[in-house]
Amino acid sequence: MTQKIKIFGVGLISLLIFSSLSNYTLNETYAQASNDKNNKNGIKENRGYTEKIIQYDKDKNCSKDLDKIPNATEYLTYFNCGHVEIDEGKNNTAREFTLIVEENQILPISNQGHKFKAWTYNGTIPGLTMRMTEGDVVKITVINEGENNFSHSLHTHSIHPAESDGVEGPGGTIIPGQNFTYTFTASPYGVYPYHCHVNPIADHINRGLHGMFIIDPKEPREQMQEYAMLMNGYDMNYELEGPITLPVVDKKDPTEFVSEEEGGGRENEIYTVNGKAFEYMDNPIKLNQGGDYRVYLVNMLEFDLINSFHLHGNMFGYIASGTGEEPEYKNDIVTLSQGDRGILEFKPEFSGKYMFHAHQTEFTDLGWMGFLT
Ligand SMILES: [Cu+2]
């Protein structure tokens, strides 16, 4: 009898939980009520909390396919907004993501046959673009596969507690076969890199364990066609390298140091945007003349101190780190150090084919170049 009451109790609690929380899928449709009022982005002002969240996710072009492995062209518009749980009563949204770290991946990194011995989050370089809204409770579970040889972690930029920083404690070192869930409240809005933070960090990043995430403002930005672009490089000869350390002191003369063997060193042989050399030379990005475009740009290049983005035939407004609402200045080139990022907004004035590329000619020649048409 006691057992029965207990079971009934649990059932009742689950029922209560289910009635206050809602999981949603992105293909739901909503009838427009006659008293609906549109705000500047067409979001219905007087809808309930859940409907507003669902509409905002649609406007953000959140993918319905959370398990998709996007190729370099699909990566431009693949925004993964996680498994969503909405608490209407508390006006609270939670988003859950899972990143599986796999070593021993062989990924194509050009359309000419070059392949890379990659380490990946969910099978791609860069890892998927995670998207959320400021104030969302975010849980990212990182699984380090049992077959892997190294520990890994997830370090996200933005504001969060130390235990979710991916450096100290259990979240800083996930050994093969283990997992860890990083939890934080998304803040402030902006565009951010994420990457593994296990030593030697540059190698873990260069091998492919990096990506971007976007925290959108609660008040939506002006609606535009949006693209994600992440700049990286590939060092193809890893066997010559190891951890970066201070030089070894020469005991006979401490003002000198023992020089290391000459080697290939840390150098990128291929440069890309979105993981594949010359991808958008081969598959130009089609834009509409007079349309409004926004690019979330992140630089995850290792071994070279800076990278840049140059747009031909046009000027873009630039929002550094994406932490402001309006562009701070107009330019046709932006230079970013390692880990830096921002938002570009522009409108094609003329028809035709326009290049976009790094303004370092070496990077351009080695893959970081594309076309807008
Ligand atoms: Cu790692």
Question: Helical amount among residues, as a percent range?
Answer: 10-25%
CATH architecture of the largest domain: Sandwich
Cα radius of gyration in angstroms: 23 Å
CATH class term of the largest domain: Mainly Beta
Shape call: globular
CATH-defined superfamily of the largest domain: Cupredoxins -  blue copper proteins
Low-confidence stretches: 1-20, 27-36
How many DSSP H or I helices?
A: 6
What is the H/E order? HEHHEEEEEEEEEHEEEEEHEEEEEEEHE
Number of domains: 2
How many strands in all? 23
Oligomer: single chain
Distinct small-molecule ligands in the complex: copper (II) ion
What's the mean pLDDT score? 88
Q: Main sheet, how many strands, which sense, barrel?
A: 6 strands, mixed
CATH level-3 fold name of the largest domain: Immunoglobulin-like
Please state roughly what percent of the residues sit in beta strands, choosing from under 5%, 5-15%, 15-25%, 25-35%, 35-45% or over 45%: 25-35%
The secondary structure category is: mainly beta
Structure, explained:
The chain contains six helices and 23 strands. With 373 residues, the protein is mainly beta. It folds into two domains: 40-220, Immunoglobulin-like, CATH 2.60.40; 233-372, Immunoglobulin-like (Sandwich). The strands form five sheets. Strands 1, 3, 4, 5, 7 and 9 form a six-stranded mixed sheet that branches. The longest helix has 19 residues, at 2-20. Residues 1-20 and 27-36 have low confidence and may be disordered. Copper (II) ion binds at residues 152, 196, 198, 204, 209.
